[in-house]
Each structure stands twice: as C-alpha cells, then as structure tokens.
Design brief:
three-stranded parallel sheet; 7 strands; 7 helices; four-stranded parallel sheet; alpha/beta; 2 domains; about 40% helix; Rossmann fold
Length: about 190
C-alpha cells in the first residue's frame, strides 16, 4: 500500500488541483479531511473513486451527500459539525471577559462553513447582548490586517472561527493577540 498526501497550507484555491493530482495517480480511495472545501474539491475531481471525508459542517447542506442515511454517489464520511460551536465559544468568552461588549470574530471567507458559523455566532451574540465585528482573513497578511482592524475598533475580545487555516497559523495568531493590550483570544 502506498499513501500519497497533499496539503493546501490553508489555500483553498489549491484544493481542486491537488484533488485532480490524486485522481490522476489513480488513487484507490481519497480521504479528504480538515475542511468541507477539501471534500468538495475531491468530489468535483471524480465521480468514481470513493471519497471519505471528515468535516466540521453539515454534509447535506454543503452538498457533499444527498442525505446522512443514504449518502449516494461515491462520497461518504463523518461530520463533527463543530461550526455550530461558535455560540458556545462566545458564551465561554463572556464568562472569561465579561466586560467585552464588542467581540471580534475572525473568519476565513474561503471556507464553505463560514456563513453558517457567522449566523450561529451572530444569533448567540444577540442573546448574550454582545456586538460582533466580523473580519475576514484568508492569508497571513489578512490575519495581520484583521487584528489591526480589531485594535482600531477597540474590540474587547476575539473569537477565531473553526478553520484549518487558522489552526495552521497558530504561531502567528498567538503573538498578535498578545499585542492587543487588554484583549484576549479564545
């Protein structure tokens, strides 16, 4: 058995080409992990090679499968649906930083789960009587610009969206959040 892997380094626009590379090998099965975008890229590259995904979103809503009980086609997998945890993170943030009335929310616009994450956090903010400042970032420079915007807007805290790109940029996010004197990151 040979395992070939590809990594987009958080650059979602690279995913279709990487999926096509795997199809051309040809792969016996494709495991698309980390993001719905990876699974969608694999699905777009082949209708015959089996695709197994792990995702944080709703695979039916995102167009990966026809239904959870009968996925259909060549795609199946597991969903952790953690894009619905933004509201819980906001609740925890309120406990940790109770005076933060304006909260920054950093999201990756290239992630197909972003709209549902924003809706979840926006609804939670309304219930928790907080305001949300949503800022997009899909590059290292974008992260720097986002935190500059958060500092300019004087947000009291920052929540980072569920996205593999942000996980990969953890070393960049940590020192930036520390620069925001009096601001915390969750």
């Amino acid at each position: 058995m040979t395992i070939e892997y590809r990594w987009a380094d958080g650059n979602y626009d690279r995913l279709p080409a990487l999926a096509t590379e795997l199809v051309r090998l040809p792969a016996a099965v494709i495991l698309a992990t980390g993001t719905t975008a990876a699974a969608l890229a694999a699905k777009g590259a082949t209708t015959t090679i089996p695709i197994v995904f792990t995702t944080a979103g709703d695979p039916v809503k995102e167009g990966l499968v026809q239904s959870l009980s009968r996925p259909g086609g060549n795609v199946t997998g597991v969903s952790f649906q953690n894009n619905q945890t933004g509201s819980k993170r906001l609740e925890l943030l309120r406990e940790i930083v109770p005076n933060a009335m304006l909260v920054g929310y950093l999201v990756n616009p290239a992630n197909p789960n972003t709209p549902s994450e924003i809706a979840d956090v926006t609804n939670a903010a309304r219930v928790l009587e907080r305001q949300i400042q949503v800022v997009n970032a899909s590059s290292e420079r974008g992260i720097d610009e986002a935190f500059a915007t958060f500092a300019q807007q004087k947000v009291g805290a920052v929540v980072v969206g569920s996205d593999g790109f942000f996980v990969a940029q953890g070393k960049q996010l940590e020192p930036i959040s520390k620069l925001l004197t009096g601001h915390d990151q969750l």
